Structures are given as C-alpha cells and as structure tokens.
C-alpha cells in the first residue's frame, strides 16, 4: 500500500454525547468533521449522568473538563441501601479515584453536552443543526474503496459527501435502518425508569432530616423489583433522581411516556419515609424505556465507509451507567483508528474492521454486565438476604469511624457491579484510545512483510517511523489558536 497522507472528510449523523465525543476525537486525528443534527437546537434532554473513570479520562485529556468546570461534581462515596435506608454496600470514591486514576463525576446532561459542543467548535468541527438525514447513498462494490464517497441528503435538500459516515443517531437511528432495516431495539423486561431533577434547596427546606442522610454522595435504595438513586449535580444546586422500576400494570415501555404521578408514588410507598418524602416533591416526570439493541453481526456496510456507534449499534439498560460512556468510548476509539488512515498507515476498510473486531465484544460484554447488575439490585428473597450478607465487609468499612476506612481484601468481589469497580475493573480502568492503538499494532504486526533479519513487521515499523507532518497542515497551531477564542 502507499503510505501517503490523506485528507479525510467524516460525517456524523447525530450530535448527542457519543457523536460529539467522536467528532472531537476525529478532529484531533486531523479529519474534516461535520456533525448533522436533526434537532433545531443543539442540546441534550434528560437529567443527570455519570462520567465514570473510563470516560472522565477523555474529558480531562481533551480539556473538556476545564470548559464544564464546577458543574462536574465529584461525590465522596456510594451508599447502597436497602429499602428501609440501612447501608448494605459501600464504596469510597477517594480510593476509586486513586486506583483508577480519574474522577467519577456526576453532571447534568445539558452541561456535559454544552462542554462537548464547545470543545467541538474549538477543534474546528462543523456543527449543522436542523439537518435531519433522509437519504443515504453509497456503492457497496467500489472499484477503489479509498475514493468511494457516501452521499447524504437532508430533509431540506442539502447534500453532503463524506469519505466516512458514522451513525451516531441513537435508538431510532436512520443510519442503522439503512444498513440493517430488520434490526429493532427491544425492551427485554417490564423495567423502565422515571427521571426527575429537584433543586437541592427545596429538598432541605421541605425535608430537614435529609441533611443528616444526604451528603455529597450517591445514594441508592434497593428493593425487589425497583431501586431509587439520588445524587447532587450542577455544582450542588440540583438533586438528580432515577427511579428504576418494573411497571405495576405489567405493560412494556417502548417509548418515552408522561408519568402517572399517582402510579409513580405508589411504586415507592413501601420505601424509607425519607424516600417517600423526596418522591412527593417531584412535580412531574417522564418514564423512559430501557431498550437493548443487538448484538449485531456487523456495525458497517460492505464497503466499510458507513459505520454505527453508540446506541445505534448497542443500546443497553442503564444499571451500570455505561450507555453514554460506551458511546463515548466508541468515539475515542474511532478517532485513533482514523488517525492512522489519515497518516497513510491503514486503509479506511482496515480501520473500520479493527474498530468492529475490537469494540463489538467490548460493548456486548457491557450490555450483559448492565443487565446482570439490574437483576442484582432488584433481587428478591432469598437472593436478597444472601446478597446483603455477602457485602458485610463493605458495611463494616463504611462505619469504621476512621478517616481512611480499610479496603476489603484483594480476593473480595462485591455483588455491586456498578458501584464497586474492583468487581469489573476492565470497565472502569479501560482506555479506549490505548485499546485502539494496541489493536492497530496487533493488526499491523501480522499484516504484510516481516523484515527477515529483525523480525519486525514492515507496516508496524512504518507506523512508528511515520511522524511529524499531518496532512501538510500545522494542526497543532490551528487548534491552539481556536482554543483561545
């Protein structure tokens, strides 16, 4: 192959959290990036979201955390409680940050999205709103894959041509429907989630006793068939609530619904009185479906120039707080493999194949972990009692009355797959950019000729010896100039 540097035009259909993360990563790789967002305003609906260490690393590494500032909240601990409020499992965030190297932030989706959008602008990404994609055209049997373009037409008749189109358009993905029209996300159980945000000042004004229970912590009350999670966000101004439950009437939630507030309150009437009082403060809410997509056999077309990411490819239930995080990992990974396409080390086909080969099993594993976590949190007797007794060591650490509570022994594994990272360290210690670079190296080590004397793959050597100029442009200087705007 020719190791010439390429100009690469990349389009993203969808400007959500995953799409904007991918846009930043791709721009940092040297691509010309355009995000086509269907909405008339760029923004994110919903409430709070958790940025666990596996994705907080990108917010820090790329400077997004500096843009968002104090609206990223680092809590002190996670308290897993039974329905009556007794702590049954516990994690100390100080140890998590120390061991995993990055924060575990909670943040309002709006603040996170705004920070990512601003970073996109500073990286030179073109953000186009009111650009609903209606038509996607490509040749799946090109004579020269490196020159094969994808043509995209919006509802307003605007046309775009891209070397690579990425479907970052979520559950109702237009790109997925084009690639795999028979694939439909499914609600696998009757589990759904109410979401709400209440001003913190209102909580403490109306429920004075809450001050003695709710500190700078993530608190989770668990019961058979449901759980209730709360945490501070927006620099402590807001109180985020997620009320996961199995529907009382047994119907399957497949789209966002207006909540029946009487039903919502009845679903938690057997909980700790503090929870009931907090629930009573919720003026209105929506009920969100928990949909699963896949696993798919492929995320791309035959020509490997249209590819899916995020919820479009692998939506999952929310019990591990990894839905958006996994989408963001996809974006960071794509940035790294595309960087080596631009440098002339990989073809676009090779880059997409490496992305699929590596990321598809990663996402499927987390889909399974997320589902399993929900079953553990909503366990019923006799599993409930066995579960709670098994985490006695965590309770003892939580109430040891010492400044730095002792950590459980190295052999210990908690049932709390989400809140006790040692149980699934591969989730929280994972670095998608490093994983991408390693996957590229493994591929190149096996591809092409090997120097008979040194036994080094010639293509791998080319990757490491190909440094300096990036597309004939001083990208570094341009990005520094944009960051000062």
Automatic annotation (TrEMBL):
<dbReference type="InterPro" id="IPR002938">
    <property type="entry name" value="FAD-bd"/>
</dbReference>
<dbReference type="GO" id="GO:0071949">
    <property type="term" value="F:FAD binding"/>
</dbReference>
<dbReference type="GO" id="GO:0004497">
    <property type="term" value="F:monooxygenase activity"/>
</dbReference>
<comment type="similarity">
    <text>Belongs to the paxM FAD-dependent monooxygenase family.</text>
</comment>
<keyword id="KW-0503">Monooxygenase</keyword>
<dbReference type="InterPro" id="IPR036188">
    <property type="entry name" value="FAD/NAD-bd_sf"/>
</dbReference>
<feature type="domain" description="FAD-binding">
    <location>
        <begin position="9"/>
        <end position="366"/>
    </location>
</feature>
<dbReference type="Pfam" id="PF01494">
    <property type="entry name" value="FAD_binding_3"/>
</dbReference>
<keyword id="KW-0274">FAD</keyword>
<dbReference type="InterPro" id="IPR050493">
    <property type="entry name" value="FAD-dep_Monooxygenase_BioMet"/>
</dbReference>
<protein>
    <recommendedName>
        <fullName>FAD-binding domain-containing protein</fullName>
    </recommendedName>
</protein>
<keyword id="KW-0285">Flavoprotein</keyword>
<keyword id="KW-0560">Oxidoreductase</keyword>
């Amino acid at each position: 192959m020719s190791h010439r540097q390429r100009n690469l035009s990349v389009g993203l259909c969808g400007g959500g959290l995953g799409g904007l993360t991918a846009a930043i990563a791709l721009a940092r790789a040297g691509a010309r990036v355009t995000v086509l967002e269907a909405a008339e305003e760029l923004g994110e609906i919903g409430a709070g979201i958790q940025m666990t260490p596996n994705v907080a690393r990108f917010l820090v590494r790329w400077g997004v955390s500096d843009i968002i500032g104090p609206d990223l909240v680092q809590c002190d601990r996670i308290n897993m409680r039974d329905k009556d409020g007794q702590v049954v499992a516990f994690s100390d965030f100080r140890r998590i940050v120390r061991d995993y190297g990055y924060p575990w932030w909670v943040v309002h989706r709006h603040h996170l999205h705004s920070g990512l959008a601003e970073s996109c602008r500073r990286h030179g990404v073109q953000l186009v709103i009111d650009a609903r994609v209606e038509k996607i055209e490509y040749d799946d049997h090109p004579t020269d894959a490196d020159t094969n373009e994808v043509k995209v037409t919006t509802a307003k008749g605007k046309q775009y041509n891209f070397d690579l189109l990425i479907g970052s358009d979520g559950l109702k993905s237009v790109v997925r429907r084009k690639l795999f029209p028979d694939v439909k996300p499914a609600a696998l159980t009757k589990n759904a989630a109410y979401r709400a945000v209440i001003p913190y000042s209102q909580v403490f004004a109306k429920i004075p006793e809450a001050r003695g229970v709710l500190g700078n912590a993530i608190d989770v009350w668990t019961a058979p068939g449901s759980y209730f999670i709360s945490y501070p966000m927006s620099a402590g101004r807001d109180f985020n609530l997620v009320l996961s439950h199995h529907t009382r009437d047994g119907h399957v939630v497949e789209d966002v619904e207006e909540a029946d507030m009487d039903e919502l309150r009845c679903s938690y009437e057997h909980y700790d009185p503090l929870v009931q009082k907090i629930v009573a403060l919720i003026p209105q809410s929506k009920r969100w479906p928990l949909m699963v997509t896949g696993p798919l056999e492929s995320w791309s077309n035959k020509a490997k120039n249209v590819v899916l990411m995020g919820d479009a490819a692998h939506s999952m239930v929310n019990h591990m707080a990894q839905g958006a995080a996994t989408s963001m990992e996809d974006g960071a990974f794509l940035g790294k493999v595309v960087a080596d396409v631009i440098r002339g080390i990989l073809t676009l086909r090779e880059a997409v194949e490496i992305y699929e080969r590596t990321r598809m099993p990663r996402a499927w594993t987390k889909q399974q972990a997320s589902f399993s976590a929900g079953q553990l949190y909503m366990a019923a007797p006799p599993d409930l009692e066995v579960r709670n007794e098994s985490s006695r060591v965590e309770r003892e650490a939580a109430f040891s009355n010492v400044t730095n509570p002792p950590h459980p022994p190295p052999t210990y594994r908690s049932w709390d797959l989400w809140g006790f990272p040692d149980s699934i360290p591969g989730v929280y210690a994972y670095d998608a950019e490093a994983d991408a670079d390693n996957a590229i190296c493994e591929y190149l080590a096996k591809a092409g000729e090997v120097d008979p004397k040194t036994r080094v793959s010639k293509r791998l050597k080319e990757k490491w010896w190909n440094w300096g100029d990036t597309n004939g442009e001083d990208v570094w200087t341009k990005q520094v100039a944009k960051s000062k705007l």
